[in-house]
Amino acid sequence: MGKINDGKIGYWEVAAIGVGGMVGGGIFAVLGLAVVLTGGGAPVAFAIAGAVAAITAYSYAKLSVRFPNEGGTVEFLNQAFGTGWVTGSFNVLLWVSYLVMLSLYSAACGSYGATFFPEGTQAFWKHIILSGTIIIFTVLNAMGATFVGKAEKYIVGLKLVILVLVAGVGVWSIKFSSLAPSTWEAPLSLVAGGMIIFVAYEGFELIANTARDVRDPKKTLPKAYYTSVGFVIALYVVIAAVTVGNLPLPQIAVAKDYALAAAAKPFLGQFGFVLIAIAAILATCSAINATLYGSARVSYIIAKDGELPESLDRNVWGRPIEGLIITCIASLLMANLLDLKSISTMGSAGFLFIFAGVNASNAILYKETGAKRWLAISGAIVCLGALGALVRQTAISTPENIWVLVAMVGISIGIEVVYRATTGRKIRVSGKKLCSER
Fold first, then answer.
1. What are phi and psi of 248, to 5 degrees?
2. Which of 45, 152, 323, 370 has a C-alpha 20 to 30 A away from that of 292?
3. Is 39 strand, coil or helix?
4. Residue 232 three-state SS
5. Nearest C-alpha neighbor of 308 from the set 68, 143, 83, 139
6. For residues 166 and 264, is the Cβ–Cβ distance under 8 A?
7. Residue 166 and residue 237: Cα distance in Å, rounded?
8. Residue 188 in contact with residue 44, Cβ under 8 Å?
9. pLDDT digits (tens, 9 = 90+) for 395-416
10. Which residues contact 117 (CB under 8 A, 6 or more apart)?
11. What is the DSSP letter of 316?
């Protein structure tokens, strides 16, 4: 048969989007943090976080097939809950969570980039690099530069090859005593640690934004969701095992912000350290570019629906410039003022809350999506339970971060409530009828 050329994307392309979205800057940013929090149980923590992602992928698959829309998560919440302030708050929280992810990626880029400078100056160069990277990619997005987008598939391929290489080589030198249950933190700490680094999995939701462009979506979308999440779970578990099994925990704690590069050094030498550092910089730069692009357009889509100020609904040169500028400023502040654990906790909490809403959406719309309602409800409960474990652990270990989480949710609700109370702008919806209107 000849090659199909219908302008649609197939299974491999969609799965690659999911894998690329997850294996972005997240694993490079939070691996060291996961080990510090969970000890030798880091692989277990990644598996627990992966299980939450997997059950949520079920709801995304069902909703994406039924409601294909470039808005993705925004559309699912609108369809299930209507367009009231609750949905609007969820959608604003999604935008804020994208800002947090951008801060996380830029912080990781700065940490890995700073390793090429003298140790005494690394803290300074970290902030210079992370700030410069955000500003540069904001300008490129505003100008419409596409060279990074065109190179994305090659960057994704390169970082996967490097990670698989590290996993394949490093597994032979693992000291399994370092992974013994005696080295694990308490069970609740394992769960909480897995939830703090849950941001490493959130990228699979990007598949939802491609639903309209997928060939044979009923078969392609579910398969792409499940295989991409399954592959990444396996990859993360092995990478975590290689890290813990090759580098003593105290050394991982010292090199927390660039733990994967440090872990590659015992079996690949300085070449391995440099290789991972370069891969991390490339991966985080591509993730920063994609997140800037996506977050600015999420603000544009939400504004079109009437849930954010109308100024964000305006395009300049075909791009949402005001959304880009606000995204840039907010992420610069977060990346420079908050530590890695605070940023990761904020991102994970935001997405766990949003994913609970998506699972609840699938439970509400189960007759239309053809989903097993009990499984969708279970997904919502699991996400809320995971969020509870995260909040509890945060309250015990770093209680000051609880106020950061409260502020994050409070700002999202406050923006929506105040905006609706002070403007008469009506909500605009997509062509499909909303649940609240049926």
1. -60, 145
2. 45
3. strand
4. helix
5. 83
6. yes
7. 13
8. no
9. 887 887 788 788 888 887 777 7
10. 125
11. B
In a domain, 437, yes or no: no
Tell me whether residue 6 is in a domain.
no
State the CATH number of the domain containing residue 26.
1.20.1740.10
Coil, strand or helix: which one is 363? helix
The pLDDT of residue 3 is 47
To the nearest 10 degrees (0 to 180), the angle between helices 259-304 and 217-246 is 150
- Interhelix angle 26-38/187-196, rounded to 10 degrees, is 160
Res 435: pLDDT: 42
Domain that holds residue 216: 11-426
Q: What is the CA radius of gyration of the chain?
A: 21
Cα 202 to Cα 72: distance, rounded to the nearest angstrom = 13
Range of weakest confidence among 123-127, 277-281, 289-293, 366-370: 289-293
How far is Cα 228 from Cα 24, in angstroms, rounded to an integer?
13
Q: 350 lies in a domain?
A: yes
Q: Are 219 and 76 in contact (CB under 8 A)?
A: no
**423-427 contacts, C-beta under 8 A, 24 or more apart:** 423/309, 425/306, 425/310, 426/306, 427/83, 427/305, 427/306, 427/307
Which residues face 9 on adjacent strands? 214
Q: How many CB atoms lie within 10 A of CB 267?
A: 17
Is residue 117 domain-resident? Answer: yes
Can you tell me the mean pLDDT for 378-397? Answer: 89
State the Cα–Cα distance between residues 141 and 144, nearest whole angstrom.
Answer: 5
Query: What is the per-residue pLDDT for 429?
Result: 45
* Domain count of the fold of the chain: 1
3-to-6, 10, 52, 75, 369 alpha-carbon distances in Å: 10, 12, 37, 33, 31
Yes or no: say if 271 and 169 are a contact pair by the CB < 8 Å rule. no
Dist CA 29 CA 121 (whole Å):
20
